[in-house]
Amino acid sequence: MTSPDIRAGVALLIAALSAEGISIIDNIEQIDRGYQNIDQRLRDLGAQIKRIES
To answer: How far is CA 28 from CA 33, 49, in A?
Structure first.
């Protein structure tokens, strides 16, 4: 999946957290712009999120 903008990116992130299996979201810079450290904050709540540098 590719994040087209901030709000859609977060919607994709929420959908990925609800889905079974592995989800990959590209263009996460869009999400980072609006939600600082969202991956760490969600990990603190128990989400299994890994940031992959390419």
So the answer is: 9, 13
